């Protein structure tokens, strides 16, 4: 795969997603995989830098989820410097983080998943876009997506300094307390977000669940993988985005293991394939058995649906009700339907909004005690958060002066990579026979991986155009027999 | 008339910093003429950066592998293809403009994209390539020229500029 990918003038930096399909002697699909470009060089770049700069540095890696990197970095510093933040600092961090989850999920459901679900998989291509979504749900909803998001981002800015590159998390706490005025604004923003979330769930019921065709698609075998699931849970095994222990359930829903973030490397390993930069995470306790699902394969998933599966429910009432509805509608837990991730995203949106409201009402939230100054010598730290796209882990080691000697990030896309590969392979096998590849395959494969929302290398701030995708079909000798480009 | 200079990119990723650095270079010169914003945001999220301005210069890195590294190109919305992005990460300016128009958000009636052809925008901590580094002054100069041209139009009498702006709004939105 060493050849340079040609990027059309209007598709900018992030490169093409490239789907490789290999046929067997009978012209059927032998294997298929998705290759995506990735940022390189982070570890080298980090070496020798001051550990306390990492939350700022890592938030600049990705323009899509800077807050997730900032918070994972901050929590890694707590661990590295062996310091526990005061309760108010922990609560403010979580409240701000929940605001981020809500605004990100809101955007995703309507503007990312929307073309597949709100407009519909069989709608004409010209309508399968954000404008089509707005046309279907109405202008007021479109405005409210932008409006809620604007309000929450304003709150994040006021609490964290900057929304894009927060200057907020410090080892042992945060940079400033929350004033009573800001607390009141968080409470108001949370209330608006809860209402928005309830409304979004109703849109999902009206538009998606009432449509037999959509439900059949969600539950179809092509989008079903019986894998393990990983996510953060609180002390009651409820979903949490900011903190907790990592819990893994097996394809039948039984708990495999629950462990603190610090033990991550004991349970998750990385598999390397020659055809991808991306390392494929798998469960060490189960083992790598190739790109296959089932109880004997260590392939697992992260992100909204995986978090719901890995937990025993939601921490707040409206979200819990929505969670129960999702589970009962889709035949009980764990839910193995990849496309149900969009629904799970809405359940989480409501949960994060309700949790934000709880924290805004907490008497500790305006406490001025938001920092505990570290006094220990730094050594090694691991921090984890649930990013909107799934479990995100930062791992730093330093010398005694706190200069980075080793830094590793395990991002959501990496955790999900093996399962995404399964999805692409399955879609290809269902649709491709011989060298006949058409738009239907592109659309269907896209739907599979869009549910995970993989970051195409944390460098995507694309300007113009559409998602560039190339499909290559090769015969058993490796000769290219068909290429489909959409760029 | 409110003017925005929006520099896009990833400051850590070699050539991808070009848009940010060029915007930073004109910040002082354009004080009072334009707001200069640096952003690593993408897709639909850029609506929030652009909303509220009458016109904008968007400065970014581009990699076509068809132009010599360091070449600066100017594009306008009509060059950027139809609004069909299926992913918010990949949503383009044309799509943003269409979404903003549909939602009735104030969006620049005139947007110029200035992009510099880059070599490697993917390596964190990677060096900026020599051709791109050499192109930065030219990129900055073109931004200044564009913003000053708009100012001159304003000063040449609201009538002509005003009609033109309005026409652009009606056509575009």
Your description of this structure?
The complex is a heterodimer of chains A (487) and B (173). Chain A folds into 2 domains: 17-37 and 422-486, no CATH class; 49-366, Orthogonal Bundle (Cytochrome-c3 Hydrogenase, chain B), CATH 1.10.645.10. Chain A has 14 helices and 15 strands. A 4-stranded mixed β-sheet of chain A has the order 2-1-14-15, with helices on one face. Chain A has a 4-stranded mixed β-sheet with strand order 7-6-5-10. A 3-stranded antiparallel β-sheet of chain A has the order 11-12-13. With 487 residues, chain A is an alpha+beta fold. The longest helix of chain A has 33 residues, at 87-119. Helices cover 42% and strands 17% of the residues of chain A. The two termini of chain A are 19 Å apart. With 173 residues, chain B is of the alpha/beta class. Chain B has one domain (3-172): Rossmann fold (3-Layer(aba) Sandwich), CATH 3.40.50.1450. Helices cover 38% and strands 18% of the residues of chain B. Chain B has 5 helices and 5 strands. A 5-stranded mixed β-sheet of chain B has the order 2-1-3-5-4. In chain B, strand 1, helix 1 (18-26) and strand 2 form a beta-alpha-beta unit. In chain B, helix 1 crosses helix 4 (130-155). The longest helix of chain B is centred in the last third of the chain and has 26 residues, at 130-155. The radius of gyration of chain B is 16 Å and the shape is globular. The two termini of chain B are 18 Å apart.
Question: What are the key terms here?
Answer:
heterodimer; A: 487 residues; alpha+beta; Cytochrome-c3 Hydrogenase, chain B; 2 domains; four-stranded mixed β-sheet; globular; disordered N terminus; B: 173 residues; alpha/beta; Rossmann fold; five-stranded mixed β-sheet; 5 helices; 5 strands; disordered C terminus
């Amino acid at each position: 795969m060493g050849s340079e990918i040609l990027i059309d003038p209007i598709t900018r930096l992030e490169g093409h997603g490239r789907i490789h399909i290999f046929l067997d002697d009978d012209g059927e699909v032998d294997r298929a995989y998705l290759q995506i470009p990735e940022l390189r060089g982070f570890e080298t770049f980090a070496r020798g830098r001051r550990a306390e700069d990492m939350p700022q540095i890592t938030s600049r890696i990705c323009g899509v989820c800077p807050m997730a990197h900032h918070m994972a970095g901050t929590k890694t510093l707590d661990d590295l410097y062996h310091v526990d933040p005061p309760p108010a600092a922990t609560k403010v961090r979580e409240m701000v983080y929940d605001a981020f989850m809500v605004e990100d999920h809101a955007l995703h459901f309507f503007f990312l998943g929307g073309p597949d679900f709100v407009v519909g998989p069989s709608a004409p291509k010209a309508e399968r876009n954000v404008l089509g979504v707005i046309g279907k749900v109405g202008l007021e909803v479109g405005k409210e997506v932008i409006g809620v998001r604007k309000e929450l981002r304003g709150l994040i800015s006021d609490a964290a300094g900057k929304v894009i590159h927060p200057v907020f998390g410090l080892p042992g706490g945060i940079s400033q307390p929350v004033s009573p005025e800001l607390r009141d604004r968080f409470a108001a923003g949370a209330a608006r977000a809860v209402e928005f979330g309830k409304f979004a769930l109703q849109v999902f019921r009206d538009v998606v669940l009432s449509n037999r065709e959509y439900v059949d698609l969600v539950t179809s075998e092509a989008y079903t993988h019986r894998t393990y699931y990983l996510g953060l849970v609180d002390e009651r095994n409820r979903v949490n985005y900011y903190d907790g222990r990592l819990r893994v359930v097996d394809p039948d829903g039984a708990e495999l293991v629950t462990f603190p973030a610090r033990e991550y490397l004991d349970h998750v390993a990385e598999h390397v394939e020659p055809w991808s930069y991306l390392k494929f995470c798998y469960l060490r306790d189960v083992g790598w058995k190739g790109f296959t699902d089932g109880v004997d394969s260590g392939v697992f998933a992260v992100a909204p649906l995986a978090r719901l599966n890995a937990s025993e429910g939601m921490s707040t009432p409206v979200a819990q009700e929505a969670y129960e509805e999702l589970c009962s509608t889709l035949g009980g837990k764990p839910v193995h339907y990849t496309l149900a991730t969009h629904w799970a995203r809405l359940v989480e949106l409501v949960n994060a909004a309700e949790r934000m409201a709880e924290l805004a009402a907490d008497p500790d939230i305006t406490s001025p005690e938001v920092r505990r100054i570290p006094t220990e010598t730094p050594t090694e730290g691991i921090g984890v958060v649930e990013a909107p796209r799934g479990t995100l882990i930062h791992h730093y080691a330093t010398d005694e002066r706190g200069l980075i000697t080793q830094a590793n990030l395990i991002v959501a896309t990496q955790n999900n990579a093996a399962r995404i590969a399964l999805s692409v392979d399955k879609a290809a096998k269902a649709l491709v026979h011989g060298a006949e590849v058409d738009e239907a395959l592109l659309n269907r494969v896209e739907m599979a991986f869009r549910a995970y929302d993989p970051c195409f290398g944390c460098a995507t701030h694309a300007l113009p155009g559409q998602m560039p995708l190339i499909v290559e079909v090769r015969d058993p000798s490796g000769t290219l027999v068909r290429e489909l480009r959409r760029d | 008339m409110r003017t925005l200079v929006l520099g896009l990119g990833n400051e850590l990723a070699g050539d991808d910093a070009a848009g940010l650095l060029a915007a930073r270079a004109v910040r002082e010169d354009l004080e009072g003429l334009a707001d200069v914003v640096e952003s690593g945001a993408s897709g639909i999220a850029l609506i929030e950066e652009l909303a509220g301005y009458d016109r904008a210069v968007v400065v970014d890195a581009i990699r076509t592998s068809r132009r010599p590294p360091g070449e600066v190109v100017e594009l306008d919305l009509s060059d950027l293809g139809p609004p069909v992005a299926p992913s918010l990460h990949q949503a383009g300016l044309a799509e943003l403009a269409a979404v903003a128009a549909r939602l009735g958000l104030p969006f620049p009636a005139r947007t110029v994209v200035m992009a510099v052809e880059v070599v490697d925008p993917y390596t964190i901590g990677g060096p900026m390539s020599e051709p791109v580094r050499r192109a930065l002054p030219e990129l900055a100069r073109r931004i200044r020229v564009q913003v000053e041209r708009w100012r001159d139009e304003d000063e040449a009498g609201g009538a002509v500029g005003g009609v033109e702006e309005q026409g652009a709004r009606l056509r575009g939105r």
